[in-house]
Each structure stands twice: as C-alpha cells, then as structure tokens.
Design goal:
Elements (H helix, E strand, L loop, with lengths): L1 E5 L6 H14 L3 E6 L6 H5 L15 E4 L2 E4 L3 H8 L1 E2 L5 E4 L12 H13 L5 E6 L5 H4 L8 E6 L3 H16 L4 E9 L2 H13 L3 E7 L2 H9 L3 H4 L4 H17 L4
Parallel strand pairs: 1-7, 1-8, 2-6, 2-7, 8-9, 9-10
Antiparallel strand pairs: 3-4, 5-6
The structure holds adenosine-5'-diphosphate and magnesium ion (MG).
C-alpha cells in the first residue's frame, strides 16, 4: 500500500507521516518512508540523524522512456543502495531539494520519486510519502501511483481550501482513495467544522487527530513524537488510522 500525505504547509503532514510509518512497522509491515518535500525534514521526525536528509536519490536511477520515466535497476537494489534504515526498521528515502540558488526546476528529482513509487508495490509493503505543501506533486503526477492520498486539514478556512483544491487533482490522477485527516482539533466545534466541510465536498474523513502540546514539545526537541510522548492521543489516533488502512488493504477470504 502506497500512502501519500498532502496538505497546506504546517498542517502536520510530516508529524503524521513519521508516526504512521513507525507504527505500521511496529505492526509488522515492511515500511519505506519517502521524504518527497524539497525542503525535507522527515528524518528528524522519524528519529534519524538530520544528515540523512542530505542524501537525495540520484537522478541517474531513472531512464526516460516514451511511456514515462522508469527505474533502471530493481527497486530492492535502490532501497539497499540509497535507503537509510531508521527506528523500528523503517527505511527512509529522500527526494532532496535545490543545492544552489538559481538552479532551476526539480524535474528529475520528481521523476525519480515517481519511478521509485511506481515499483514499490507488494504485499505487506507500506510506503508513506511525506509530500510538499504545493499542488506540484499532483500536477506533475509524481504521486500518481499512490493507492491512497491522505489530505491533512486543520480546522481553519485556508487549510480546508487547500484540501478543496488538491482533491480534484488527485481524482484526475485516478488515485483510488482520497481521505481527509483532521488534525490539531481543540474542540468539538473544530471537529464539526472539518466534518461539515467533508460532507459538503463529498470527501471521506478517515481520522480525527487532537491538538496536543506534546507534539510541539517533541518538535522543539528535534525528537520523534513516538519517543517523547508515546502515550499522546495523537499517537493513538494515528495508530487507529494505520490499523484501519491496513485492514482495508488486506485481501478478504
Ligand atoms: N496534533 C498536533 N498537535 C499539536 N501540534 C501539532 C500537531 N500536529 C502537528 N503539530 C505541529 O505543527 C507544526 C507543523 O507540523 P509538521 O508536521 O511539520 O507539518 P507539515 O509537514 O504539514 O508542514 C509543528 O510545529 C508540529 O509540532
Ligand atoms: Mg513537512
């Protein structure tokens, strides 16, 4: 199962991506966490050294074919050569960002992530993609091969407006499932605002994640939430989401 995580800047994508990745690994899945933000910070949220964020996937991994870019090597060898093992056995890959000012576009970096994602399919393999705040990874089709796109929303207008813009792009890419994650909820009124938004726009809400100061404290310390506050309700809510997605992904019969 390949899970993309998108939403406006600061809504909690990286916090949720890292926590999901480690909880899925603890539940027995083989987990790949891809930092697909050109301003990467998934490593620290996972509990890896920040240096890992400076090891981007090289563009040489991809060849351009008529039907789109594809990996020249088996994805397993890409994971071995470029993946960094982290806490709970999660393996992290980094898209990387611009090394210099005036460098130009990041086309090849996006193409590389897209090609890796295309090949990361398999039973009990969970890939979590921490995406950029901009719609670019949907407009470029970088994440066209995710099986589910989670749109993280805070209970305020501009964040919900971002979800409203991203959802149709995901639909145009034929991403099979789109779900909204309400984050940083401080009250029933907050929860109702997101629920009402989802209903109005015919979007499915998959989780309600409360606001918890422990998340900010962990962030300030540069440590994973799971290590600093394992009993946080945020961890519990993300754990429920992981269980829900894995159950939905398990073939019946
Ligand atoms: N449920 C939550 N409760 C409190 N603070 C949160 C919560 N989720 C995220 N945050 C805080 O919000 C800020 C942005 O989170 P981050 O995961 O980096 O968002 P994004 O990746 O979407 O930019 C961080 O300071 C983080 O600690
Ligand atoms: Mg982020």
């Amino acid at each position: 199962m390949r899970i993309g995580i998108a939403g406006k800047g600061g809504v909690g994508k990286t916090t949720i991506a890292a926590t999901m990745a480690r909880l899925a690994a603890r539940a027995g899945a083989k987990v790949i966490a891809i930092d697909a933000d050109s301003n990467p910070n998934l490593a620290t949220a996972l509990g890896l050294d920040r240096v890992m964020e400076q090891r981007p996937l090289p563009a040489s991994l991809v060849s351009k074919r008529l039907d789109g870019p594809a990996l020249t090597d088996a994805v397993d060898s890409v994971l071995t050569a470029h993946g960094t093992p982290g806490p709970d056995g999660v393996v992290m890959l980094t898209m990387g960002g611009p090394a210099h000012a005036g460098e130009g576009c990041l086309c090849s970096a996006h193409a590389t992530v897209g090609a890796v994602l295309a090949d990361l399919a398999g039973p009990d393999l969970v890939t979590v993609v921490d995406m950029e705040a901009s719609p670019e990874q949907l407009s470029r089709g970088t994440v066209r091969n995710v099986d589910i796109l989670l749109l993280v929303a805070e209970p305020y207008f501009r964040s919900l407006e971002t979800v409203r813009r991203l959802a149709p792009l995901a639909m145009e890419l034929s991403i099979a499932r789109i779900g909204v994650i309400a984050n940083k909820l401080r009250s029933e009124t907050d929860a109702d605002a997101v629920a009402e938004f989802c209903e109005r726009h015919r979007l499915t809400q998959l989780a309600r994640v409360p606001y918890d100061d422990a998340v900010t404290r962990a962030d300030l310390a540069g440590s994973p939430l799971l290590d600093v506050a394992p009993d946080s309700q945020v961890v519990a809510a993300v754990g429920e989401l992981v269980a829900q997605l894995r159950t939905a992904d398990t073939p019946q019969g």
